[in-house]
């Protein structure tokens, strides 16, 4: 089946610290991978995506590389800000190269950044 | 509007009542998805529409859940005889592309928080 496992939170960091949120997946075929972010009181927003192996998605200083050999898509940021405090969801869509379809989400990781 | 709009934002109902949740997708978007997000969990897929056609309803948890999109734009998710386990945030997402071939990701609304007493 298709599933996503991400590290449990909450994660608490000081401003300018390095962030890693681990995500691994199980999927049939060749999925596309995503990170979504949910700020307090808001809906899910797409943060970044990668549609094939070795692709690197990046946005707002966040990066994640699609690693087929380890079935992973870990989220990283070199220097977090208070405004990055949110819940982060790793997700996949079945189907090579497609970014549309039923999304399979991880449980989410709460990130809190202190000044 | 500029984004996906869902209403009401909050809904409280007594166990056994019927509820209806509305989703206004971005104008012109072909695809529409409904997801259910329980507290502390990631969203779980419920159903998918391509225009007015409901192509996938495999995620609906029981026959008490029913969704429609009669004119291919606004969609309504209806839950009959609500139970406490139906308490969750219900998310709607839309996309301009069709299910099987698109490079456009889903745009999510802010959700409806449903509480069953």
Could you explain how this protein is built, in words?
The complex is a heterodimer of chains A (115) and B (117). In chain A, the strands form three sheets. In chain A, strands 2, 5, 6, 10, 11 and 12 form a six-stranded mixed sheet that branches. In chain A, strands 3-9-8-7 form a four-stranded antiparallel sheet, with no helix packed on it. Chain A has a two-stranded antiparallel sheet with strand order 1-4. Helices cover 0% and strands 50% of the residues of chain A. The mean pLDDT of chain A is 92. Chain A contains no helices and twelve strands. Chain A has 115 residues and is mostly beta strands. Chain A starts with a strand and ends with a strand. The radius of gyration of chain A is 13 Å and the shape is globular. Chain B has 117 residues and is an all-beta fold. Chain B is built from no helices and eleven strands. Chain B has strands at 5-7, 10-13, 19-24, 31-37, 44-50, 53-56, 65-68, 75-79, 88-95, 107-108, 112-116. The N and C termini of chain B lie far apart (33 Å).
Task: Describe the protein's topology.
The complex is a heterodimer of chains A (115) and B (117).
Chain A: E1 3-6, E2 11-14, E3 19-21, E4 23-26, E5 32-38, E6 44-50, E7 56-59, E8 62-65, E9 75-77, E10 86-93, E11 103-105, E12 109-114
Parallel strand pairs in A: 2-12
Antiparallel strand pairs in A: 1-4, 3-9, 5-6, 5-10, 7-8, 8-9, 10-11, 10-12
Chain B: E1 5-7, E2 10-13, E3 19-24, E4 31-37, E5 44-50, E6 53-56, E7 65-68, E8 75-79, E9 88-95, E10 107-108, E11 112-116
Parallel strand pairs in B: 2-11
Antiparallel strand pairs in B: 1-3, 3-8, 4-5, 4-9, 5-6, 7-8, 9-10, 9-11
